[in-house]
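Entry 14: structure prediction run for histidine kinase. Input pasted below.
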Amino acid sequence: MLRLLVSLYIVVFASIIAINQGSEAVWRNWVEQAPDDLRHATAVATHYKHALTQLSEEDLTSFFNNETQLTVFPYEDVAWLPEQLEALKNGEIITSFDDTGNALLLFVVNSTSVVQLGPFAPAQSATTKQYTIKFLSFSLLALLLVLWLRPLWVDLVQLKRTSEKLASGSLDLTPTRSRFSAIYTLTQQIEKMALKTASLMSNQKQLVNAVSHELRTPLARLKFALAMLAPKDPEQVAAMEEDVMEMEVLIDEMLSYARLEFANQQLHMQRCDLAHLIQDQIDKLRRTTDKRLVTDITSDIPVKCDPHQLSRVIQNLLQNADKYGQSKIKATLTTHHNMARFIVEDDGPGIPESQREQVFQPFSRLDKSRSKETGGFGLGLAIVSKILSWHGTVCHVGESDLGGAKFTLALPLIAD
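Run finished. Output tokens:
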């Protein structure tokens, strides 16, 4: 950051000095040295005054009689302003203006006579030139700042693209940076961190694939061995088989959740009828549950989603309600303010308000005993949260009128 501040200070300081010196040079050569009748006449009047003060009274009278460009009159004939009279007595050349706005140059000779030279057209206003120089100066300063900011902008855009790739799970990182950027060291460190993160994500993906193959093989051999031992001790073997099946389910869920880290790269977003997806999952649940299932599904609800992944969300919410509900499950699909709202409620123990955010964390369960009656490993709602994040929404937890938990998700409707 020190490099950034120092470079900005140097660029601004040097630019202001250079532009200021350049503006003064342009002003002297373009404005002050520009042709000006009045300024030229003032120089002529100064020459006349110097020459006339050297003449005698007779020569001066003869000169005025022969010179038609000069007008001579006693200075008492004019009602001078005090400052004008003071300047004339001090031997200065003053400027006055006639009724038409033309300039008159006046000076005193021999302390009695006032010599008038003119009239001359007044000097042109330099306001336009002044504002033109200011505009060009500020434009040049802005251009210099843009040149300084360009490498910084390139690096920031590159960092944005890198972070977007990491967020989407892409590991194809090709960082490029400008050595002239003021944040060169910062971008260097961030890119190292990004490459390290990409390496960790790649290692995680390889670990998931290894677990998928390596753990299933010994589990299969163990199941085969238990099947061979079943005739000798059926009860003991049956309990062991349940433990093996539980381990297999856990591995499946862990692998399923791990694959979600990379699945959003293959999302297939399309127009879907949300009511149809929900009804399919409800029909599946009816075939396996012994609880009363109440539904209120509004038909023809078009949304943009990945139908496979969103069906998984609906299935997990319904299975969660079936797992913890006592006797009744309620599923509702409505529309409100251009949003589709899907609500799943149960009459189970509910979720305390202080733990409603926690249930979406991986391996998080309110039932710490992990009893086989309720089953699960705390990954179902974590999967729901992950998939919904790809769809730009979240699942909210509340209290149901049935006495248990209430899960609500909302998706924007799309135009027909």
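Notes: The first strand starts at residue 70 and ends at 74. Will compare against the previous run tomorrow.
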